Amino acid sequence: MNKLSELKEIAVRFSEVDSMGIVWHGSYVKYFEDAREAFGAKYNLGYLRIFSEGYYAPLVDLDFKFKKPLVYGDSARVEVIYKPVDAAKICFEYVIYSLKDNSVIATGNSTQVFLDRDYALLWNNPKFYQDWKLENNVL
Amino acid sequence: MNKLSELKEIAVRFSEVDSMGIVWHGSYVKYFEDAREAFGAKYNLGYLRIFSEGYYAPLVDLDFKFKKPLVYGDSARVEVIYKPVDAAKICFEYVIYSLKDNSVIATGNSTQVFLDRDYALLWNNPKFYQDWKLENNVL
Amino acid sequence: MNKLSELKEIAVRFSEVDSMGIVWHGSYVKYFEDAREAFGAKYNLGYLRIFSEGYYAPLVDLDFKFKKPLVYGDSARVEVIYKPVDAAKICFEYVIYSLKDNSVIATGNSTQVFLDRDYALLWNNPKFYQDWKLENNVL
Amino acid sequence: MNKLSELKEIAVRFSEVDSMGIVWHGSYVKYFEDAREAFGAKYNLGYLRIFSEGYYAPLVDLDFKFKKPLVYGDSARVEVIYKPVDAAKICFEYVIYSLKDNSVIATGNSTQVFLDRDYALLWNNPKFYQDWKLENNVL
Fold it and tell me: If DSSP states are collapsed to H, E and C, what string results for D108-132?
């Protein structure tokens, strides 16, 4: 089975830093999403593709562990790793590394499900996703 | 002609404060929008009403003057005032007052136009809005 | 031992809704923080108190489970429950209920640690927090 | 006199798009700030430099004109142009261009003033800024 992953560099924006002088924890939601979008662009599994296939893929699970703070001026590298599962879900693992010393800044996980255009949950993999898994050797 | 306005109280959120210890300027976009939504709820001119009539009403003009900073723990009152114009536009003026001493924190203006569902600009007032102006005596 | 909790009502803002027409998952970070700030105001354990005692209390763990979507125009009630632990941590559990039908929209947890002003981690409860626990009967 | 400017490419993030399917107007605050930070990095006039010199430089004026919408998947180029003034202010003009067809998406302006560490307004240019103007031939 293949290991699919992507790297995305991020630079801390002024607006992402809080009054403690460190990146506000909520900003990491965007860092994860930036990485997920980069993954989607690389492997043709982005929101636009999913939407054009007739589905939404909202998050149902999301967690973060914050190990070290980022400050204004810092840059980091988000690694997003696809985690194969049988269920009709898209699961990712994330690790954010400091560009300064390669230390781990934060880790996390996300799970997405498929809804059809009437927002009804799909219990089985939609065909395009099953095909995608096959093509990418993650079945 | 009527003067239509609404007041909306806001409390500064931790996430809205930047590393200078004051409310980040971008947070005021939300304060104005909060007030505009309160106006829309009071006078039945909210996004949902506009959308259900078949239109979008995106902003085309927006400006801010920041007079005094807000800090974490502060509360403020946003006054939003409807500015009647003949054109197919929705125009508002905003004044944000400190709840502490009633001093002016910020002022601003916004202008919205109407698009149909194909994102084409309306040059004339849509009927529902013309009716709304009549009902509210702002023609 | 006491059970400490607080309720905070939230109304979905236009800016919190994404292009799928539902509240963007990242907006829940703010809903949790709104509830945590309401708890802090009620029990005198807010950011300002913690800061005035000489500490920061950044999040180190945060997780969400999204059960049902919120849409624009919805209102919800966030329940935040203090979870007593011996360690030098502040732990909360969250449940977001729809105001329409009381159904569960989302759940989650957060953990905060204490840093001193030099951003060094405290391994033991700072005195003010130990006192707070005692006063509130959560030891 | 020199014309100082910088270009910054931005890619629309999923979280920046609203339920009308276009970039939420508030997201442009960040696009302008991204460009301003790029300018600051290029010409050594960023927030960190200003702060290290003993000052804050908050915005006091900000305006936007939105000409055409951006949608998810779009990329754009923000041009930020320094506007020389005698007063103790930092003034910028912004033009956002579509990367697709070079059409103008939005324009705007910002004005910043200098505060000292006690948040008192400076009526005269701080020395470091006067020197910066001289070095960059914008006096």
Answer: EEEEEECEECCCCECCCCCHHHHHH
Q: Which residues does chain C have within 8 Å of residue B73's beta carbon, measured at their own beta carbons?
A: 48
In angstroms, what CA-CA distances link D15 with A5, C20, D21, D136?
22, 11, 11, 37
Q: What tens digit of pLDDT does each residue of A73-88 get?
A: 899 999 999 999 999 9
- DSSP state for residue D14 in the 8-state scheme: G
Which residues of chain D make contact with A33, given a CB cutoff of 8 A? 13-15
Residue A43 touches partner C, C-beta closer than 8 Å: no
> Is A97 near chain C, with CB under 8 Å?
no
Work out the minimum CA distance from C62 to partner chain A, whole angstroms. Answer: 5
User: What pTM does this model have?
Assistant: 0.94
Neighbours of D73 (CB within 10 A): 14
Is D87 near chain A, with CB under 8 Å?
no
Closest to A82 (Cα-Cα) out of A123, A135, A11? A135
Q: Using CA atoms, how far apart are residues A43 and A3, in angstroms rounded to an integer?
A: 12
**pLDDT surpasses 90 at B21:** no
What is the complex's ipTM, to 2 decimals? 0.94
Query: Left if phi > 0, otherwise alpha if psi is -120 to 50, otherwise beta: which for A137?
Result: left
In angstroms, the CA A10 to CA A74 distance is 9
